[in-house]
Each structure stands twice: as C-alpha cells, then as structure tokens.
Inverse folding.
DNA sequence: CTGAAAGCGCTTACAG
DNA sequence: CTGAAAGCGCTTACAG
C-alpha cells in the first residue's frame, strides 16, 4: 500500500503551485483563467496516479462535510427503514453521505447524538424529533445548519417539515368503520404529546364525537417493548367491549395482532382492525389488515429535496421562509374491516 | 450563536499552552505528570464554557475518525435493519458512529461507497459483501482498516467473519419436511454465487439426494423487484408439481407468499412453506409460517465486538489471525409445515 | 512538569 | 494567469 498522495505531491510533480492544483480541482479554472492546456495536464496526471483530495482536510478548511445527519425513531421499524433507504439513495446520488442513528424517542440520547453530529460538521439534518428538542433544533438552525423535520412537527421550531394529515387520515378511517356499522370503536395509541400522535388521537376522538359514539382509548408508553405492548393490549381487551380497533402505529398493530390471535378473536367478525402505516405484515396477514398508508417514498423524497435545496442554494437565500409539505395518505381497505382484498 | 471555541482559546484564557490542554483532554495528564490542581482547573473551565474538541481536526491529525462503515445489502430488508440497529446501539455506546449504505449487491456501487468511506477516514468496516469485492477488501485490510464480513464470506479474503451454518440449517429444514412426509420439495433461491446462497442451495440438494428425492430449484436474479419475484414464482408454481416449498431469503418468501395467496393455494394442505430469516410477517401470517431463524442480535454483537477488538487493540496485535464465528440458527416450526404454533 | 513549533491536507485572500 | 503563505483545530516529538 503506497502512501496517500497529497495536493502538494501533485504540485511538486507537475512543477506548479498547490494553489493552481486546488483551483483546478474545485472547478475554478475558468474563473481564475488557468490555461486549458494546464488544466488538461493536471487532470490527466491526477487520473493517472489516482489522486483524491482528502475530504476531511477539505471539511476542516471549508466547514462543509457533505454529510447529512439522519435521526429516526428506530431504524428497525419498517416505516423508518423504508424512509432511510429512499433518503440514502437520493443523497448518495447527489454526493452526500448519511450518518444515521435511532433516537428511541429518548431526549437525552438525541441531544448527545446531535452534539456528536455537530462535532463532525454534519451539513444538515433530517429528523423525526422526540419531544423537548426545541432548544437543540433552534441552535442548529441558528448555526446555519438546515433542519428538515418529518413525521412530526416540533412546537416553537420554525423550519421545513414533511408529513401527512394525521388528523384527517385517522378521522376518515373511523368514519369508514362507522359507515360499515361498527359502533364500539377502540384505539391504541402511544402516550405521547408528539404532534403526529396528538393529531391521530384527536382525529379519532372528533370522528366519534360527531356520531356521539363513546371513546375507548388506550395510551401505551413508548419505552415498552413488544411483549409489554402485547400484554397491555391483552389487558385492554379484557376491560373494554368493542367491535373495532384502530392502531396508531405499525408496531402497536403488530403487537396488538399478537394479543388478538392469542385470544383467538375472529377478525373481522368479532373485531375489525385498522393499522397505521402499511407493510408486508398487514398485506399478508390472513385476514389481511386494513391500513392507513403513508407515502413513504414521497416523504423521503420531499425531505431530502428540501434539505438539498437549502444546502446548495446561495447564502442569501438561506433565510427564506420554511416550507411545509403535507402528503396524502391512502386508506387500504382489506378483509379486517370487511373489505374483499 | 457564539463562535466555536478552539483549544488555543482555552489555553489563552488559562494562561497555559495548548500542549498542556491537549494532554489533559487526552487523559495523558498522569503520564506527563501535570499537577492534579492544574488538571482540575482546566477541566472545570472546559465544562463551564462547554468546550468540545473538534473531532474533524483530531481525525486529520491522528488518522482516526471513530467512524465505522456499515455496508448492508438493503437497509429496508428487516434482516439487515435488525442487524444495523443492534450494531448501532453497541457502536454508539463505545463512542463510534456509523456511516452506512445499502449496496444492492451492486459491485460498482459498492466500490464507490468504499472509496467514499476511505476518503472519510473510516476506521473499520462491517460488510455484507457483493460478489467480486476481493481486491477492494484486501486493499482495505492492507491499509490497516479492519474488516469484519458477515452473512457471507468472500473467497480470497482472509479476515474476521460472522455467520451461520447455511448448509446445515437448510438441510435440517428439508429433513424436517421429509420427516413430515413431504416428498416433492421445491426451493426458491437467488441466482447468486455468494457463499450463503451456495450453501443454502447445497444443503437443499444434498438433503434431497440423501433420500433420493427430486430437485425443483428456481433461481431468481437479485435485481428483480417484488412484483417480478412474485411473477417468477407464480410461473414456477405453474410448471412444477410440489407439496412443499423452501425460500432462501425473507423477501423471496414474502413475495412467494403473495403469489401463493393469489393462487388460493391452501397452506399447508396443498403446499407446506418454510422461510429463511424470521420476522413479524411469518409469525403473524395465518397460517403462521415455519422459519429458519437467524440470531440477529448475536450476529450484530459478534460483528461489532470483533471490529472493536481490532480497533482498540495495540498495534502489534493487528496481525493476529482472523476469527470466524458461526452462530446457531433455530428452526421455528409453525402451522405452514403442520406445526401447531 | 510545561511550552514553542511543526505538521495533518486542504482553501483562499493577497500580491504580483 | 500563477504562487507564497496563512490558517482550519488539533496532536506530539522535541527541548528545557
């Protein structure tokens, strides 16, 4: 393994200054009126010896890293894994790399992660934020590091956001259930004040209220693991009398289905079921499970596009107003609510 | 946002040299016999003003980045997402960050990724390698960047490896099917010469041969998307007469189940089914699907442990022999093969 | 015990 | 059109 070449090695070999090499490397040859002939000579030589500028040194000097920090709730959750995959594809295509981590919705952990990311001069952020992150997010933005939030907004933070209409999509699912004749509709949500959870709960509550139907809401703490969630839902099923059940996230639904199957409850005869976020499990379950489907690819694409726009636009545009993009969900009606698919 | 402090700001404020500050920062106070009193004074001040050394500058100087490169086939595949999650947890706990990417088993893409990672001075690598990556992997190792392979070995590359016994786990599944009375056993695998695929196919082939049973093997190119996979399997089901079917990966199984359900084939009455890699889909399907289960957490833990060991051990140990860790799978027998769970 | 200085590999204002 | 030099923020051999 030969030693890594540096820009001064190149300059020395070619008997020119590092300045000239650097200008050529950074596409400033025109601007600096370096002769076409010299440019060609340098480029040929660089290709020949396989020289690559050290991006770390460049970052130290310029303050830019071409790295994007991605903070999701949990990379092993199919919703977030799907988003991550699409963001990654787009970012790499534009020459950006992704440093990622799972927050577990843990505020302290997230703070540390942001500190570490800042420390690595991460250029910009795409974040599904836990509650209470206002100060850190605003500090990031003030420091000139653009932040795109997705999945949930954070009060007091004025920045780009990509999400869905949680209130309406949930309300529509409840209305669909009511339309099918279900009257005792329960909901399993997270005990969380995050915007997306609040909106999903409120959509459920208001849709019921409109028809003067009773609420049966269970809120489960985020930290509980799968088995604990199943147990909590099992207990809930003991205590309520319902004929339909709406889950506020995909993993609540997965663990809820475990509890339902264990109790040998017939879907949809004894209990109709609706999940939030579609995935293979719901499609291939028997009966298949109705799901409120988020447009994962579009969410990812909108998030990375907004971020790259901020990152690549000239300085003076940085202060432009923050954008919000609300994408459409679709309600996939399947057998679990009397559908035929 | 106040300007970021540097080590010389600290030194100046305290009227000492940057050397002393640096030694204290790096835990060399003892070794350099700096007075306890001074150490305390410096630490107190640093905490007070919230100074954090710039890790980029440190990396440039030391050649270490505390970043691990993780290359998986596809982060949205639950098997790899699960591994990624566990590796991440362990790495962050030890002060390492993760730069990740999905290779899509694409050799050219993977080469570029490795080049980009090297360029960022990534300290070490955990890789599920595509075919043909020998040269790049060996170059990495020669350059002193440890590499841990997982899921599949690469011929001609002598380095740490974590995996399972693909041959035996597949053979056992086939034997189980034979034991249950199935005699016309098919297999859907990838058209791939990767070690794990070859071993799974061979396990299937040899187990059948032992009982003088015929093969019904379909090999599907990696690049095909879900719909194409389902279609290929649908066609396969048209052309063979089988009573049991083994899938070589989780997404082959998921797409195969789609085809099977569409054809309204009764599981296990008309067709028994076994998947590779367990996940929620197989557990919650009705009937539930028998799966060869990989120990995801253990694979992740072994991989990151081996890498950290190389990364943190003193120089002279670097040349120590490469390790191989083969972990146990378990065959989860469910209703799709006549089980009762 | 502590400090002045070189150097990691770049970029860029300044000067010619 | 091109170059010498400062500086990004660290670490560490060398000297005292």
């Amino acid at each position: 393994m030969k030693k890594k070449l540096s820009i001064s090695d190149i300059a020395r070999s070619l008997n020119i200054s590092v300045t000239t090499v650097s200008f050529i490397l950074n596409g400033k040859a025109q601007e600096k009126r370096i002769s076409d002939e010299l440019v060609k000579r340098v480029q040929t030589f660089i290709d020949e010896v396989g020289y690559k500028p050290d991006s770390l040194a460049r970052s130290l000097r310029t303050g830019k890293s071409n790295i994007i920090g991605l903070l999701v709730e949990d990379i092993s959750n199919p919703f977030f894994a799907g988003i991550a995959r699409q963001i990654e594809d787009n970012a790499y295509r534009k020459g950006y790399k992704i440093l990622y981590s799972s927050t577990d919705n843990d505020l302290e952990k997230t703070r540390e992660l942001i500190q570490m990311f800042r420390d690595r001069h991460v250029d910009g952020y795409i974040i599904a934020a836990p509650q209470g992150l206002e100060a850190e997010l605003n500090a990031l933005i003030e420091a000139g590091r653009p932040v795109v939030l997705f999945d949930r907004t954070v009060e007091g933070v004025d920045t780009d956001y990509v999400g869905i209409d949680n209130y309406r999509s949930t309300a529509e699912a409840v209305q669909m259930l009511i339309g099918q004749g279900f009257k005792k509709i329960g909901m399993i949500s997270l005990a969380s004040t995050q915007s997306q959870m609040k909106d999903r709960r409120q959509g459920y509550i208001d849709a019921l209220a409109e028809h003067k139907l009773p609420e049966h809401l269970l809120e489960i703490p985020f930290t509980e693991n799968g088995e604990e969630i199943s147990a909590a839902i099992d207990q809930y099923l003991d205590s309520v009398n319902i004929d339909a059940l709406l889950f506020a996230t995909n993993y609540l639904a997965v663990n809820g289905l475990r509890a339902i199957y264990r109790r040998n409850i017939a879907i949809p005869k004894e209990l109709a079921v609706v999940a939030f976020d579609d995935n293979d499990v719901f499609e291939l379950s028997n009966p298949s499970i109705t799901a409120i489907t988020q447009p994962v690819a579009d969410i990812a694409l909108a998030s990375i596009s907004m971020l790259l726009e901020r990152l690549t636009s000239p300085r003076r545009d940085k202060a432009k107003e923050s954008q919000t993009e609300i994408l459409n969900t679709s309600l996939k009606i399947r057998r679990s609510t009397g559908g035929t698919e």
The longest strand of chain B covers residues 67-72. Residues 7-53 of chain B form a domain with the 434 Repressor (Amino-terminal Domain) fold (CATH 1.10.260). Chain B has a mean pLDDT of 92. The CA atoms of residues 42 and 48 of chain B lie 10 Å apart.
